[in-house]
């Protein structure tokens, strides 16, 4: 998928799901983790939160509390890839159109987490299948 299509899907998903009008009052404690595939910019295997599917790393608790507990499914995060500008634009869109609150001093940490673990990827689709057709 191209950048335009990915952005369009993100925006449509955000419109469908909407956002909560106020910040969460949740203490985000990570669940026991399972091992998953490496993230976009990481070369080592990282733990993944069983409940949300998000990579457990610095900023995880803040992202989980602000994004998935209070607003939308973690799938909106995990299925998208983008640099810091992409994620900042998505946050601004949610703030302007869906009632997302000011993230304050947490915003740089959230952006860093998203760009690091859900950053741009040169692969936008799976490799072609190797199929042998019967004649």
Helix- and strand-based class? mainly alpha
Uncertain stretches of 5 or more adjacent residues: 20-31, 33-40
Order of helix and strand elements from N to C terminus: HEEHHHH
* Count of individual domains: 1
- What portion of the residues fall into strands of 2 or more residues? under 5%
- Adjacency order of strands in the biggest sheet: 1-2
Shape: globular
Number of strands: 2
Characterize the main sheet. Answer: 2 strands, antiparallel
Query: What is the overall pLDDT average?
Result: 78
- The number of helical elements comes to 5
Radius of gyration from the CA trace?
16 Å
- State the end-to-end CA separation: 32 Å
Helical amount: 40-55%
If you had to describe this structure to a student in words, what would you say it looks like?
- This protein is mostly helical and 135 residues long.
- It has one domain.
- The protein has 5 helices and 2 strands; from the N terminus they run H-E-E-H-H-H-H.
- Helix 4 packs across helix 5.
- It starts with a helix and ends in an 18-residue tail after the last helix.
- 21% of the residues are buried.
Could you give a short description of this structure?
The chain is mainly α.
């Amino acid at each position: 998928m191209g950048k335009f299509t990915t952005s369009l899907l993100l925006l449509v998903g955000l419109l469908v799901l909407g956002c909560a009008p106020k910040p969460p009052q949740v203490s985000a404690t990570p669940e026991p983790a399972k091992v998953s595939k490496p993230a976009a910019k990481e070369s080592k295997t990282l733990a993944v939160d069983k409940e949300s599917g998000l990579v457990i790393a610095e900023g995880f608790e803040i992202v989980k509390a602000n994004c998935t507990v209070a607003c939308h499914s973690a799938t909106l995060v995990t299925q998208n890839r983008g640099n810091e500008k992409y994620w900042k634009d998505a946050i601004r869109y949610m703030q302007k159109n869906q009632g997302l609150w000011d993230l304050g001093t947490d915003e740089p940490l959230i952006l860093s987490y998203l760009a690091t673990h859900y950053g741009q990827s040169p692969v936008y689709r799976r490799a072609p299948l190797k199929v042998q057709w019967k004649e």
